[in-house]
Give the backbone structure.
Amino acid sequence: MTGRVVLALAGAGVLVVPCVAPTYHVLLMLPFMAYGVALLGLNLLFGYTGLVSFGHALFIGIGAYTGAFLTSKFGVRSLEAILVASAVLGALVAAPVAALCVRYVKIYFGMLTLAFGMVFYTFVLKFYRVTGGDEGTPYLRPSLLGFGLEEIPKTDYLIGPYYYYSLVVLALAAAVMWRVVHSPFGLCLKTIRDNPAKAETLGISVRRYRWYAFMISAVYASAGGALLGAPIGNVDPTLAYWTHSGNLVFMTLLGGFASFFGPLVGAFAFIYLEDALKSLAPSFWRLIFGAILAAIVIFAPGGLLGLVRRARPLGVSRA
Amino acid sequence: MSGIFHASILFLVSAGLQVVFGVQKIFNLACGSFYALGAYVGVSAVQAYAAAGGPAGFFIVPLALAGLAAGLVGVVVERGLLRFVYERDETFQLLLTFALVLMLEDTIRLTWGTSPLSTGGMYLVYGQVRLLGAAVPVYNLIVIAASLVIAVGIGALLTRTAFGRIIRAAADNREMAEALGVDMRWLYARVFTLGTALGTLGGALVIPATAAMSEMGIELIVEAFAVVVIGGLGSMRGAFVGALIVGVLRSVAISTYPELEMLLIYLIVIAVLVLRPRGLFGTAATAT
Amino acid sequence: MILRAAGLRKFYGEFCALDGVSLAVDAGEFVSIIGPNGAGKSTLINVLTGVLRPSAGSVHLNGREVTGIGPVRLARLGMARSFQLVQIFPDLTVLQTLQAAVVSRLGRGTRLFASLARDREVEAGALEVAGLFGLDDKRHTPSRQLPQGDKKLLDVASAFALRPEIILLDEPTSGVSTADKTAIMEILVSAGRRIGLKAIIQVEHDMDIVFGYSHRIIALHQGRVLADATPAAIQADAHVVDTVIGRKTVLPPGPR
């Protein structure tokens, strides 16, 4: 019951933030929501299927560049179109990549995904005539549900209509993922995570289900990328660099990969922590971040939500 | 030629990566950061040496020594951090090395600042030679020679010394080695330090030819990663051959199709992972 | 004939684990495979259940060639197995484990947007098997928290939840106290009858169990079939008794 209360409070909080909080903080919520969508997908792969991808920034890059290209090179400004296109492109790229990667586990899976991520990064960096190289491609202000809203200054657009649009996308994405995770399909993923050999003897094709999970996570990550790029206004290759993929895993671990809301908590904590540290300790915020990650890995591998759960009595299955 | 120079440095760093993976089964993402550390320490050492009036001709001595000394950081890292995750899933081990990358990045930045540091033209004190129609600094040849010596040395260490035999035994079968009385804590501390020292040495030796820059660590790790995949995880011969392949391919690509540079290498990495996951010299892959 | 294996050979490099093993199991049979350690029993089970590809030979299930098609397809064709070293899903509850098997059986694994909790048919199927194995009062317990004996039961129960035609049990009573062994066997046999199981093959070391339940016994030795006969015939075969069973063992009468 407390879980639902907390969720309701959080939901209410997120709804009123633009009305009560200073602009700066409202703007910080935007990457949180974008990463939230992406991480919901990543955790389907990580927490529910047991595969750790070190290349998911690839799909964030695909989503962001799709938005950038559609708005600045093809004159398509509809965010709906951008989201759909990102999802489709993410799926198209994921299909062969996933087919290859799911044949491997653990470190080999991680290495393959890292390699693919870097292929995209290098491709986007080097073919600068098309992609703008390290200067990137502009991602112009998208229109929301057909409304250009050009009259509104950019900041008001972002903390108002764009904020609520992102929130709706995040809520929808979460609702869908909740269904998926609690479906017969979700159960099969969990069996693969827990014991692939036994899952096979129960007739569950490990490779095929991993592929499905990868595809879904890629679609989510691409959508997240599309949402991430718009407020920044410019999309550059660093979005696909391997350290960005590492950060995605870091965020998931921070919040707790063993629960549904862990990644969202992680994204929130990461964004705010990063911002706070950058202003408090501009010359050594990465040091502190690294120390936090190390502390989590060593002392609290279940992440923040894992710590919360430890304070509660045991006996509750994490599935 | 510059490809072979780059390959020599790459070999040193990759060898460090391989020895740690071979024995501890940990892929140390921070090996690139140790390389960067070695580079910066090397620059400082050489600058101090020059300021103290040391003869330019011997600058390579403090450089190499500094590089090796920086490797001692490995002891601190292993005892203070890494040993807590030996019993954990490899994902967590990998993430811990990622945390190290972050921490080292700022530590270096705090100590040496953000602008590139270099030893300037100091390495030209050894002069240049003309090889195959290009001017090659003798310094580069010295480094290549040194790498070859180190490669042979590592080979000898592994095959002829007791320590080397323990390393190979532990890499082959950890439980067995433990049952035979090898103290894993002792071994792990030494192996990790050896791996780190190889990385820092590589960083120090590269300095005269390039500059110490803040991104050098995270950029090198992806090349080192390509080397160990192509060569085979855990194999020293793999590090040698892999470094050669990556180093030479890269310089060939840079001079012919610059856009292709690393792209080609990553595509080869993917091809290797798909067609022959254990690489050229590795043992059987732990695929599904 | 439900399961037929012909001329199975398996080499690990130079070492020959299976050297021309053939067997046939009909509907209604309970067959035990016995043999000393290293005889090739586990290898044989792994080859029959598609986990290993034999170096030579074939396996047919209901007349259809299934050599090396893998456990996933075999499970769909009606073959299930349990493991010698207990295999469970540590973070799933008893109910979820059984639900997974039923989901797979009903082919509902690709239902992404349906609610598992509201699937009455899956729940009923899972609860039925839980009841047969006496696990229904523990159905919400995470598998990792079950006592060892219950984990063993769950491993077998999840195989039964597939409603297979034939089931291969790798040492179903190993690690279980003698008092409980018979209880487990009784549960197995009656559950099998309830779900329409047509044949059981087990690898077993406990001769009381073997002789108490088998219609036929196959004795393996050094990768070869030493004997393939009824318990009475095996008992009378001094060579088999010496090599595989051991003379000091007092053999009980035939199956119930």
